[in-house]
């Protein structure tokens, strides 16, 4: 929807009327900082906040911004008109270079001055709702330096035309009295969004998913709702990248009913998304009188080019290890089949924690699927017992020259002509990489800490 954001820049010449209110005990009623009295919005028949506050002058930098947002189905979308029976979020924001305390009050009326819709609080700590004279008023609660209030407005359930939101805002200097405050009174109109007349011929949007380098037929789906139309010319605009072409087809012998389908063209799908805009009865869609506009999108799907299983090649029996898949290309789902594991089937790219209870060599199979097919890859994992060594090495009495690393690749230490048993001394139990002089790499499992 289009944007509606009311920004009221306030410029004033002169001094705002200053009025003090005295009660029966001749003591000044300083303010309504908790909740203002109802009926102070400046609407027809209402007073304003200037009844109690005044003496200050609004500056050109002072502003009031009132914004209406959709809630369903497009939350946080700013709207320029309301639909009957819908709920909208209203945000009132005031800004000032001098005021340090703010308050407001608002009511919603139709053009005849009758209440229009209803307010609902989102935050009862800083907003309040009151009813007076049949009208509903939403206002600040516990005025402070807070300059923004949010609440809901339920639109009328019947068509009452544009709704006028009357409001008054207090720009206060927080001096504990009514003096030196400035009041702005205004209103904004939110028009009703009228439902356009139903066209005789309705065109339906569509989205096609097609594999790259394959042919696909693009069809127009339509429905005839009125008997006044028997023949229609459909203009077709095709956009591929920066290339736009215009064509047309003619629908003849139309009868009430549908949906119906008619082929537009057969295309070979490339790597670019293809967009079609279709409209009825005029060379320019803005000139439509008895038809509709539709959009068809062809989304290319590239085949899966690679599946890689990330994880260790060797694990200890009974201990979980982490595995994750990397998929190159578009995919819809991923299935894991794990041989001999405590759990044999997993879904998604992971990470997955997998363990085996029996030693041996097992296969992990991962298959990625999309609408154009699937791709499978495998990985072998050696599961070893905690009492065995992963590779055969000479007796630990030989002299060792080389380096020892953690499985992650982090260097622990390097040695030269050192007894191999000393190399392993003070290592915690686990699998280590041994890089020998000359470049040969092997693995060894230390079954218990060697002290």
Topology:
Blueprint: E1 5-9, E2 54-55, E3 63-70, E4 87-95, E5 101-109, E6 118-121, E7 127-132, E8 135-140, E9 148-154, E10 163-172, E11 179-190, E12 201-203, E13 206-211, E14 215-224, E15 232-240, E16 243-251, E17 257-268, E18 274-280, E19 293-301, E20 306-310, E21 314-316, E22 321-328, E23 333-338, E24 345-347, E25 352-354, E26 360-370, E27 373-384, E28 399-405, E29 411-419, H1 420-423, E30 430-436, E31 441-446
Parallel strand pairs: 2-11, 13-19, 21-27
Antiparallel strand pairs: 1-3, 3-4, 4-9, 5-8, 5-10, 6-9, 7-8, 10-11, 12-14, 14-17, 15-16, 15-18, 18-19, 20-22, 22-25, 23-24, 23-26, 26-27, 28-29, 28-30, 30-31
What does this structure look like?
The structure is a single chain. The protein is mostly beta strands. It folds into 4 domains: 5-190, Reeler domain (Immunoglobulin-like); 201-301, Immunoglobulins (Immunoglobulin-like), CATH 2.60.40.10; 306-384, Immunoglobulin-like (Sandwich), CATH 2.60.40; 399-446, no CATH class. The chain has 1 helix and 31 strands. It has one helix spanning 420-423, and strands spanning 5-9, 54-55, 63-70, 87-95, 101-109, 118-121, 127-132, 135-140, 148-154, 163-172, 179-190, 201-203, 206-211, 215-224, 232-240, 243-251, 257-268, 274-280, 293-301, 306-310, 314-316, 321-328, 333-338, 345-347, 352-354, 360-370, 373-384, 399-405, 411-419, 430-436, 441-446. The model is unreliable at 1-31, 282-290 and 387-396 (pLDDT under 50).
